[in-house]
TrEMBL record, chain A:
Protein name from the UniProt record: SoxXA-binding protein SoxK
Keywords of the record: Signal
Record has Signal as a keyword: yes
Signal peptide: 1-22
From TrEMBL, chain B:
Residue numbers binding heme c 1: 97, 129
Family: Belongs to the SoxA family.
Taxonomic classification: Bacteria, Pseudomonadati, Pseudomonadota, Gammaproteobacteria, Pseudomonadales
Catalytic activity: L-cysteinyl-[SoxY protein] + thiosulfate + 2 Fe(III)-[cytochrome c] = S-sulfosulfanyl-L-cysteinyl-[SoxY protein] + 2 Fe(II)-[cytochrome c] + 2 H(+); S-sulfanyl-L-cysteinyl-[SoxY protein] + thiosulfate + 2 Fe(III)-[cytochrome c] = S-(2-sulfodisulfanyl)-L-cysteinyl-[SoxY protein] + 2 Fe(II)-[cytochrome c] + 2 H(+)
Protein name: SoxAX cytochrome complex subunit A
């Protein structure tokens, strides 16, 4: 009687760290690092607001507030993607407005 | 914040795209640019463009003229002169690093160094001079470097800006790079330098009155009321980038030096009037 209970108890205890592996912290780290690398891809076209969101995401994560951290990192990623698109678009677009081209 | 964005978007919508004219050389670019602004402001004498917004707005100009008796940068210029003339620990001075002992040469900066393959701004030359003489470099945007640069500019007052793009593919590439920077939209607000200073000079943007491209660098370093002190051109670049929520680049980065190269070339022939004051 006692042994199976113990076994269940152990497996429950073990399942906590297992569950955490796919938990909010990991979710956060995934978006955050994607946002960071996309921000880098913007090169000289980085937006200040992307950096602000990244900082906010990081500090929320440091405080254990992963819900907010993920929301901020998501926003940062979206902004970073827009800045990368701007960079690509401007590669040619500037020529159409420059005087003397 | 939101208000600023709305105003900016409204301005953006009103942009008259300048006619894309075929220009191949920097000199053709410059002539077309000058022509563009002369047509935009037919009543403004060309030399007046060095006074930026004051050339275009009478009220601003009156406020500015009333400040000219006691310019707030006078003390900094005197300090700059003293630093300029004080020997380094090795006994040499700044004069040893510059043509003509550094006097009356501001109009030739920035220039393209065909050996080092890069644009040399006056501030970069000042710090390289220090380092060559065993001194620590100065911070780039304000303080001592702005004072020394202001003193050097003051010895060039009235001399026509004389930037050269030598017949060298790297020099031309640096110029083109600066031009691309000037016309590329940046930041969350999606504005290029040209959106404001080519397409909208003479217009208000919130409490500021926009100056035209031509003449812009002639008055640097500048004493701004907002700063309460002198600042360098790259400090201004950073501020203008920031205003459209684009991350500024480091002062004296290759990008900003190339930008300065292009921008100053556009002002060739106009007199050096730095240091000066701005709001």
């Amino acid at each position: 009687m006692k042994k199976p209970l113990l076994a269940i108890g152990i497996s429950l205890a073990l399942s906590v760290p297992l569950a955490a592996q796919a938990g909010p912290k990991e979710d956060f780290q995934e978006v955050y690092s994607k946002a960071q690398s996309t921000h880098q891809d913007a090169g000289t076209f980085q937006w200040t607001i992307t950096g602000d969101r990244l900082k906010a995401a990081k500090s929320a994560a440091d405080n254990g507030d992963y819900e907010k951290a993920i929301a901020m990192a998501d926003e940062a990623l979206k902004l970073a993607e827009e800045s990368v698109a701007q960079r690509k678009q401007q590669k040619e677009a500037w020529r159409h407005v420059a005087i003397g081209n | 914040m939101l208000k600023a964005k709305v105003i900016l978007v409204a301005l953006g919508a009103a942009l008259a795209v300048p006619q894309a004219l075929a220009g191949a050389t920097p000199e053709e670019d410059r002539k077309e640019t000058v022509e563009y602004f002369k047509q935009m402001f037919p009543d403004v004498p060309f030399e007046e463009f060095v006074n930026g917004q004051y050339a275009l707005n009478d009220d601003r100009r009156k406020q500015w003229e009333s400040m000219q008796d006691f310019p707030p940068y006078e003390f900094a210029v005197a300090e700059g002169q003293e630093m300029f003339e004080t020997p380094f620990a090795n006994g040499k001075t700044y004069a040893s690093c510059f043509e003509n002992g550094g006097i009356g040469i501001r109009q030739n900066y920035p220039y393209f160094d065909t050996e080092k393959n890069e644009v040399i701004t006056l501030e970069l030359a000042i710090n390289r001079c220090r380092e060559a003489n065993g001194e620590e470099p100065l911070k780039w945007k304000k303080g001592a470097i702005a004072s020394i640069s202001a003193y050097m500019a003051s010895t060039s007052q009235g001399k026509p800006i004389n930037i050269k793009v030598p017949d060298d593919p790297d020099a031309l590439a640096a110029y083109q790079d600066g031009k691309e920077f000037y016309y590329s939209r940046r930041g969350q607000l999606n504005f290029s330098c040209a959106s404001c200073h080519v397409q909208n000079p003479g217009k208000w943007i919130r409490a500021d009155f926009l100056s035209p491209t031509v003449g812009q660098p002639a008055n640097f370093p500048v004493h701004r009321a907002k700063w309460g002190e002198l600042g360098t051109l790259h400090r201004r670049f950073a501020g203008c980038n920031n205003n459209v929520r684009a991350d500024p680049l480091p002062a004296q980065s290759e990008e900003y030096r190339n930008l300065e190269y292009f921008l100053t070339y556009m002002s060739n022939g106009l007199p050096v009037v730095g240091p000066a004051t701005r709001p």
